[in-house]
Structure formats: structure tokens, C-alpha cells
Task: inverse folding
């Protein structure tokens, strides 16, 4: 959690995380659920989300880089910790020291890990990433069987899993992903016919394939977006139980309330537009808020939505005509008060971003307080 002398703070609801995990588990059926916590757990805090997920029974956490994996280990999060992507040679000692499970996608990866494992006197558990058509990372699907067999035969390596990644958002994307899933499992089936059963975990779908209900012969799913209340799917693609947003509120202090003169403001200044009373809030662009389209953005003060007049690095300037507000009151950038409600999705739309992009912009810049609304149900919510 970020520690700050400033009082802008985001409240993240752990009960929403548990609700979304229950939805994911119901959709996954017999498949194991692996939690993706890359990109600082999609902006929500890798250590705190790792702790909450393992407390809810998750046994594997997949991280985006070795720094996040080490943070989890140093926080004594009790889980198997997997690494997306590839490693650089200088990171291998840390992999062994922290008992991480890296990805390999070529013989060079395998060789450097195997050599270190032999010296250490214990095998390294590894996962093989297959490029089934995305073109971003992994061994080409037609070369994968040979790499899998070589890895299984290499002293120092213990093959734990074989996976691919097929993200999509649209109906056309779902069709493409379904075709590539078939190719991946055709490759796996051919391998098992030739050399016998695989004892490794297989994984294809993340949030998109799971929420869209696409067919799957894998033994696991790896889910990020859906756990954190973020659907990667366009409206109308698939049908699933509703997810709950994790951001309960984002609030900031009112630092000043001032009456403005009725004359024109200085060019480039923050004079009133259609109002004579403004408030300055203690949150701004430097805190990760994205500049919204002119006239779109709002915040809640005294239970009413009020327009944002200007964005500065450190502050938002809002119109507060006919609103009872004083310095050091709290304003809700995201949250609910009475009948007024502003969501993360609202702000993302106003700024021309996805909700995930906005969360990543806020990540590490805003202090976070973790709350449990299942135990504090009187708090107002947009959900």
C-alpha cells in the first residue's frame, strides 16, 4: 500500500474480489483457477491481492515480471509463483533463490536454467509458452512438441505446464481464438499419442475465453481481468453472471472554496465558466487521473454530481454553485452518495481509456485502503 501525507485515497473492496472469484470458479468447473496478478495485479496491488486470493484458496499466482514475484515471496504469500515471459540470464539465481516457476520458449532458456539447477542440486519447475497464433511470445506451435520433449529429457528441469494466450474482445476475435485453441490441443493430442500421457498442466483461456464460454480441453484457466471486475469483452460477446467492481471509492479533500469575480478570467487561468463559486480538490493529473473530454467529467460533493472545470498536475477545479461545501470536506471522484454515482468505467469513458488503462495510470500513485463491504454493508455503493 502506498503511504502518503496526502489524503486522496482509493478504497478497494475485497468482498468484490471474492465474489468475482466465485463467478470464475463456477465458470471454470473442473479446471484449476490460476490467478494472473501481472501489472501490480491490474493496478490493485500485487501483494494485497495475492494475500486475498491465497486466503480464498488460490494456489498459483502468475506474475508479469520477476520483481513482482519477489515482492510476493518477501511478503510470505503462500502460493506457487509462476512467471510469464522470458528470463535474462542474470535473473536465474533469483529464480532459484525464491523458488519461482519460470517460462521457457527456446533451448537457450532451457539451457541456462538447467545449468543453474544442476549446480544448485535441485530441479527448476518450468512452464513452456506456445505461440498458437498471437505472435507475441512463445515457441511456434509446430516447433513446440520437440521443445517439450527436450525439456522433459533435460536434467535439472521439471516440466509443470504448457500454455498459450489467446486474448480477444469481439465476436470475430472469439472465432479466431476458438480456431487457435483447436490447433493448440491438436498439437497436445498428437504429442500424447506419440509419447504417452502428459503429466503437465495445460492452459489456454484467460478471462475472455472463460467469460465467453468457449470450449476447452485444458486442465486450467489463468484469469486476471475477471477477478478484478474488468471484462475484456465487448457488449454482446458471451453471457456470464455479473462481476462486481473492486473500486468502491476514490476520494480527495476539498482544499479551497472560493467565490470568483464576475469578470473575464486571465487567459489560461481557471476562472468560472457559467458559475461564480469554485472548489479546488487535492487530486490531479500527477496522481494518475487522465484528462477527460471537456465538459464530461464530474465529481460528487455533498451528494451531488458537479462538473470538473479544469485539470492541473496537482488539482481538479470544480464548479460548486448552489452546493453546500466547505474546505476539508471530501469529494468523491469515484463512488456513490445518495442517488449520485460515478464509476471507474465512467471516468475511463470520459478520458477515452479502458478501465484497465485508467487503473494502471492510478496504480502506485494513489494511497489504497482495503475494505470488506461484506462486513460493512451499510456503505453506499454503485454496485
Result:
Amino acid at each position: 500500500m502506498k503511504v502518503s501525507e496526502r489524503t486522496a485515497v482509493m478504497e478497494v473492496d475485497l468482498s468484490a474480489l471474492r465474489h468475482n472469484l466465485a463467478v470464475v470458479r463456477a465458470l471454470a468447473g473442473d479446471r484449476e483457477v490460476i490467478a494472473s496478478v501481472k501489472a501490480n495485479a491490474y493496478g490493485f496491488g500485487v501483494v494485497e491481492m495475492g494475500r486475498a486470493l491465497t486466503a480464498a484458496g488460490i494456489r498459483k499466482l502468475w506474475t508479469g515480471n520477476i520483481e513482482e514475484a519477489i515482492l510476493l515471496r518477501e511478503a510470505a504469500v503462500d502460493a506457487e509463483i509462476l512467471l510469464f515471459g522470458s528470463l535474462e540470464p542474470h535473473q536465474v539465481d533469483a529464480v532459484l533463490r525464491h523458488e519461482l516457476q519460470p517460462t521457457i520458449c527456446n533451448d537457450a532458456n532451457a539451457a541456462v536454467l538447467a545449468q543453474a539447477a544442476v549446480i544448485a542440486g535441485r530441479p527448476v519447475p518450468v512452464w513452456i509458452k506456445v505461440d498458437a497464433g498471437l505472435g507475441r511470445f512463445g515457441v511456434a506451435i509446430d516447433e513446440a512438441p520437440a521443445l517439450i520433449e527436450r525439456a522433459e529429457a533435460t536434467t535439472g528441469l521439471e516440466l509443470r505446464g504448457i500454455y498459450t494466450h489467446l486474448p480477444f474482445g469481439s465476436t470475430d476475435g472469439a472465432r479466431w481464438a476458438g480456431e487457435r485453441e483447436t490447433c493448440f490441443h491438436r498439437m497436445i493430442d498428437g504429442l500424447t499419442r506419440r509419447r504417452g500421457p502428459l503429466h503437465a498442466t495445460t492452459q489456454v483461456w484467460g478471462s475472455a475465453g472463460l467469460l465467453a464460454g468457449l470450449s476447452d480441453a485444458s486442465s486450467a484457466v489463468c484469469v486476471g481481468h475477471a477477478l478484478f471486475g474488468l471484462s475484456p469483452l465487448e457488449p454482446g460477446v458471451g453471457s456470464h453472471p455479473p462481476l462486481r467492481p473492486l473500486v468502491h471509492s476514490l476520494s480527495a479533500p476539498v482544499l479551497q472554496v472560493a467565490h470568483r469575480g464576475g469578470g473575464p478570467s486571465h487567459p489560461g487561468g481557471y476562472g468560472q465558466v457559467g458559475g461564480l463559486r469554485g472548489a479546488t480538490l487535492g487530486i490531479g493529473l500527477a496522481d494518475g487521473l487522465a484528462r477527460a473530454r471537456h465538459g464530461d467529467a464530474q465529481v460528487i460533493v455533498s451528494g451531488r454530481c458537479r462538473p470538473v472545470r479544469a485539470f492541473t498536475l496537482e488539482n481538479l477545479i470544480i464548479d460548486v454553485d448552489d452546493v453546500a461545501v466547505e474546505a476539508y470536506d471530501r469529494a468523491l471522484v469515484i463512488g456513490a452518495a445518495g442517488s449520485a454515482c460515478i464509476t471507474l468505467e465512467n471516468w475511463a469513458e470520459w478520458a477515452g481509456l479502458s478501465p484497465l488503462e485508467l487503473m494502471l495510470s492510478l496504480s502506485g500513485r494513489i494511497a489504497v485502503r482495503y475494505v470488506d463491504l461484506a462486513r460493512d454493508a451499510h456503505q453506499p455503493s454503485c454496485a
